[in-house]
Amino acid sequence: KKVNYSGWNGLVHKMLLDCYDIVQRIQFGRIVLIESNKRNLSDYVVVSIVQLLLNPYCRSIKGFMELIDKDWVGCGYPFLDPNSRYYFTLFMNILWVMVTFYPKSFEFNNSFINEVYFESFTHRYGTFLARSVQYENNIIYQSPSLWGRIIDNLENYTTNEGFDSMR
Length: 167
Prior knowledge:
mainly alpha; 8 helices; 57% helix; globular
């Protein structure tokens, strides 16, 4: 009930519509530029969702890990800042909705999404402690990566054996 009053569902809907509009423009051959500044953290969400919609590789486990490393960690998303968690939560919620409605389009399941989301808050893995790739390189040697644990337990996170990351 509180979710309905918070406007969260409307925000998720609006974000999906914005991403769909960008995808349509790209599919019609238009050039789309998402000009970002560090203050507009919603750009992380838009860029990631658009890639998930356009690129099947990003819907594979390996592709998703690369997406997080490249577009969130590599661009300096402040995972450690409690005020910034809202945007990663928004992204993961939209992804959860997409996987729920289109499970055959993803190699991974909602258990994978829940695991990544939960661990992004625990600070147990260097994956989400970094604010840049350079900083991440120092952290990787000092803490384990969530991706290693996921790869070791892939059977818990995959549902679509027929998934083709080239489609």
